[in-house]
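User: Reviewer 2 asked us to show a designed sequence for the structure in our supplementary figure. I'm pasting the structure tokens here. Could you produce the per-position amino acids so we can include them in the response letter?
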């Protein structure tokens, strides 16, 4: 089986980062059909929180498939799904304890927007430049990490307005962290003043740490300021924790790093160890306004997803995965800082826990998207999978398993070192 054969039946709309045809995976590694081994620092774009083929997840899924795959959550109820909701509710901040399960992050985004409008009886939504929330019509309407995602899809869902995220490239040059925070909050207020009055605005949707936009960590004052504005105006605060949540930052939920509890939270990617799963999570009070029949889905909340999700949480608890994220995340960040000190084209190292990225720029200040692509190409030649990020494509994100070990980090850093050296010579 070759990629050329594969392309005959696959729409080009689905962009492919490599031409690899992979048949199995284990931990931090993948093997192609010809038996070649690759170090995977993408992990399904932060989906495989416990690496490929985690034995506990595989066992749970296999046993559940032998009992029941699905009978539609609209028709019946499943013990595994109920138990998963209970377990996540015990961990979730505030009163976030009511769930709607679906299959992917974009579905969760759509659900959160519908829920916010149903509860508030308002239509306006404020999202942020640099954001990524999915590719369905609803989720792409609140996405602004790159104009290519919106190409030829106008008109979008109405009532969406974009504000500034407090990243370096969106705020006036020379601003420090707190100045960027104030600037971004003022931009939200300008939307309230000039475009969407607070009493017409249902929600502010924000990634507590931007993912596709570059693994940008905002100041605490920014998210705390959004919380204050929402409380003042009766606007709901939605946190997209699809990539940043579920342990990736070293806390179970990214919101915990900022001391802010949202009204609605979306989850996805990592929650079921590789099985398609996502969720809209809110308070019982808010969920009560989402009356029967106002939302639905055929496969969401299926018992296989529930079983996998429980296995993930068991592994988190018994192996203290969050402590590993904090420990190995600090180590990985220190190794990336070493590369930054060694190579001038690396201009930033940022992130929390194991949600880390490097930024590359040319000596004259131009964004180094081409440098990133050189590094990715060289890494693939050395049998390592990597992924870019950032509005200008000049970021490289690290999405190792959350149970990654130091030897795997060292292996990846050694490869990156060689690849950055090649890119440095081109600058």
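Assistant: Here is a per-position design you can include in the supplement:
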């Amino acid at each position: 089986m070759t990629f050329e054969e594969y392309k005959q039946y696959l729409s080009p709309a689905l962009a492919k980062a490599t031409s690899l045809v992979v048949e199995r995976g284990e931990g931090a590694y993948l093997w192609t059909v010809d038996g070649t081994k690759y170090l995977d620092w993408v992990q399904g774009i932060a989906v495989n929180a416990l690496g490929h083929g985690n034995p506990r997840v595989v066992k749970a899924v296999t046993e559940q498939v032998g009992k029941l795959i699905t009978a539609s959550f609209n028709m019946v109820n499943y013990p595994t799904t109920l138990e998963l909701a209970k377990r996540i509710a015990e961990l979730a901040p505030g009163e976030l304890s009511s769930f709607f399960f679906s299959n992917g992050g974009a579905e969760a985004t759509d659900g959160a927007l519908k829920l916010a409008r149903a509860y508030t009886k308002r239509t306006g939504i404020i999202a942020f430049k640099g954001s990524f929330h999915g590719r369905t019509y609803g989720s792409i309407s609140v996405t602004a990490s790159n104009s290519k995602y919106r190409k030829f899809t106008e008109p979008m869902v109405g009532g969406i307005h974009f504000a500034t995220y407090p990243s370096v490239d969106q705020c006036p040059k020379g601003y420090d962290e707190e100045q960027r925070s104030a600037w971004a909050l003022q931009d939200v207020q300008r939307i309230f003043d000039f475009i969407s009055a607070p009493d017409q605005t249902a929600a502010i949707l924000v990634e507590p740490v931007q993912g596709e936009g570059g693994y940008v960590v905002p100041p605490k004052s920014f998210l705390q300021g959004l919380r204050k504005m929402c409380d003042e105006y009766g606007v709901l605060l939605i946190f997209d924790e699809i990539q940043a949540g579920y342990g990736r930052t070293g806390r179970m939920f990214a919101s915990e790093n900022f001391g802010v509890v949202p009204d609605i939270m979306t989850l996805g990617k990592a929650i079921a160890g590789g099985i398609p799963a996502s969720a809209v999570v809110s308070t019982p009070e808010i969920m009560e306004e989402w009356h029967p029949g106002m939302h639905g889905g055929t496969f969401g909340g299926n018992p296989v997803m529930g079983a996998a999700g429980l296995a993930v949480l068991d592994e988190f608890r018994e192996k203290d995965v969050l402590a590993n994220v904090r420990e190995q995340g600090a180590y990985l960040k220190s190794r990336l800082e070493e590369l930054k000190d060694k190579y001038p084209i690396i201009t930033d190292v940022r992130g929390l826990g194991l949600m880390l990225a490097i930024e590359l720029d040319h000596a004259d200040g131009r964004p180094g998207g081409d440098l990133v692509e050189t590094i990715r190409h060289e890494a693939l030649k050395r049998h390592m999978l990597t992924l870019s990020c950032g509005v200008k494509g000049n970021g490289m994100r690290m999405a190792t398993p959350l149970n990654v070990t130091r030897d795997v980090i060292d292996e990846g850093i050694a490869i990156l070192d060689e690849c950055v050296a090649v890119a440095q010579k081109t600058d």
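For the response letter, you might also mention the following. The radius of gyration is 21 Å. Residues 29 and 268 are 22 Å apart (CA to CA).
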